[in-house]
Design a protein that fits this description.
single chain; Amino acid/polyamine transporter I; 20 helices
Length: 507
């Protein structure tokens, strides 16, 4: 099945991958040349473990993710949606383990940019950072539009279909989220705590209510669970399952926010939060899909694919509860947008601090202890992209083509992370069965899976020549800029002066 038949183009932004457990190996000392100047340092004690987990969970926007993929999963694997969610969890947790281990080596706001650049090649590191910046800045335009649409739908369908009204409301909400992000990471965490609590409570409450009503025979046409819901045959065989896996990987998007706030959380909180977040997301999505997919006959669910969670809320409790679902989806979208601004600003901050971007990006505001310059610029860029796509159809089409390929670029990004984790700890992988499993097998499964996703997506025919040109053109531009940065700048990052000593791995 073609991916484009079950997933909208704007949802390619969800091409992410995920995590697991087990403390990494030895933590290396950072060399003196790699120490961040105190004047431009983030607040290392700003976040607790719970804050980092919430940032990662809220970033995934679970209500929005379920709203996007539930009908598609039903169309692909029937009622066996839990099967591809579980299968995709295994390689995703492997990549997250790689994040955890690399974070134990070095906590960096740039995450993969820094790890790949220092362990493999600085140009590869720049490329990874560039791709994720494009992913978060261009890709988040696809989030701003639904913000306006969902909000205006409460007042008038005509307004919700007016692109200028949608853009205006989307701009206001974007600026509100930007204001929160600019006030510092502690304020951002409080914002995410509020929305996450509401959003996860809605999913759990509606899921329990759905199961009670199904088994109480209160929903006409409801489908009750049977053993086929948990088998490959019940999903339609391996071809259907693999198509479902390509959908399920989008559900785990957002956990990597934990990595970008690692310098603002003392110790190994970021790595552990990434692992725990993926595990929580696995159980949450499994429960939500299991509970919601049977509330109505198959065809009814497909007829309401565009507003499927509102339809679920309508069946369970009427118009009021349908609106509660819409608010939850709106909140999830806001949380994802805010997390995108936080993540992109930390990446650009790390690159500015290292001198591969203008140093202006690497400045930290003394009052908020956040990269204020990067936060404001990247937040406003989203508004520019939004209005550009609204006023000019050609710009809108170009951005849409770029968004369609960002998922492939993100897959490359995570593949690089998994490979770097294996490479950096290569000398200790065979030192014990535990290190072999956590340092080699699990990240290796993630790398191989992402390679499969890349090949499958490129050969599926979902992307036309224009989309591929835009996508790989952006990637090529990133490589060109890395060499320009190396030639023009004076960064120790490119001169090889920021190095790591691998000898401690042998202890």
């Amino acid at each position: 099945m073609r991916l484009s038949n079950v997933l909208s183009r704007s949802q390619y932004r969800y091409y992410c991958v995920c995590t697991m457990l087990g403390p990494p190996m030895e933590q290396e000392d950072v060399m003196a040349s790699d120490v961040v100047p105190t004047s431009d340092s983030l607040d290392s004690k700003a976040l607790k473990l719970g804050d980092v987990i919430i940032l990662a969970l809220a970033s995934s926007g679970p209500t929005q993710s379920v709203a996007v993929t539930l009908a598609a999963l039903l169309a692909t694997v029937s009622y066996a949606g839990v099967v591809p969610i579980f299968i995709s969890f295994i390689p995703m947790i492997g990549i997250a383990i790689g994040y955890q281990r690399l974070n134990a080596w070095q906590s960096s706001a740039g995450a993969t940019y820094s790890w790949v650049g220092k362990a493999l090649n600085p140009h590869a590191g720049f490329f990874a950072g560039w791709i994720m910046l494009m992913y978060y800045t261009v890709g988040t335009t696809s989030l701003t539009v639904p913000l306006g649409t969902y909000t205006l739908s409460f007042f008038s369908d005509d307004l919700a279909n007016n692109k200028y009204a949608v853009a205006a409301v989307g701009t206001v909400l974007n600026l509100v989220v930007l204001w929160v992000a600019a006030r510092g990471i502690k304020t951002s965490a409080k914002f995410q705590w509020g929305w996450a609590a509401f959003e996860y409570l809605v999913i759990l409450a509606f899921g329990i209510a759905a199961l009670v009503m199904i088994y109480g025979n209160h929903l006409d046409g409801a489908v009750k669970v049977n053993s086929s819901w948990f088998t490959i045959d019940g999903a339609g065989g391996w071809p259907a399952v693999l198509s479902g896996v390509l959908l399920a990987i989008f559900l785990y998007s957002g956990w990597d926010t934990a990595a970008y706030v690692s310098e603002e959380s003392k110790g190994r909180k970021a790595g552990n939060a990434a692992v725990l977040s993926v595990i929580i997301l696995f159980f949450l999505y499994s429960f939500a899909v299991f509970a919601f997919q049977g509330v109505a006959p198959y065809q009814n669910m497909q007829d309401h694919a565009d507003n499927i969670l509102a339809y679920v809320g309508q069946l369970i409790g009427g118009n009021f509860w349908a609106n509660v679902m819409i608010v939850a989806v709106l909140g999830g979208t806001l949380a994802s947008l805010q997390a995108a601004i936080v993540s992109s600003s930390r990446i650009s901050y790390a690159m500015g601090r290292d001198g591969v971007f203008p140093r202006w990006f690497g400045k930290v505001d003394e009052r908020t202890k956040s990269p204020l310059n990067a936060t404001i610029l990247l937040g406003l860029l989203n508004v520019v992209f939004l209005w550009g796509s609204t006023l000019f159809d050609s710009i809108g089409q170009a951005l849409s083509d770029i968004v369609s390929t960002l998922g492939l670029m993100a897959a490359i990004f995570y593949l690089l992370t998994g490979f770097t984790a294996i490479w950096y700890y290569r000398r200790t992988i065979v030192s014990s069965p535990k290190n072999f499993f956590l340092g080699g097998v699990m990240p290796g499964i993630g790398v191989l899976f992402l390679a499969f996703v890349l090949v499958k997506s490129l050969t599926s025919g979902d992307l036309d020549a224009v989309q591929l040109t835009f996508g790989f053109g952006l990637a090529a531009l990133g490589l060109v800029l890395s060499f320009v940065s190396a030639y023009k700048g004076k960064s120790a990052f490119y001169r090889g002066e920021i190095q790591v000593d691998e000898s401690s791995q042998l202890s």
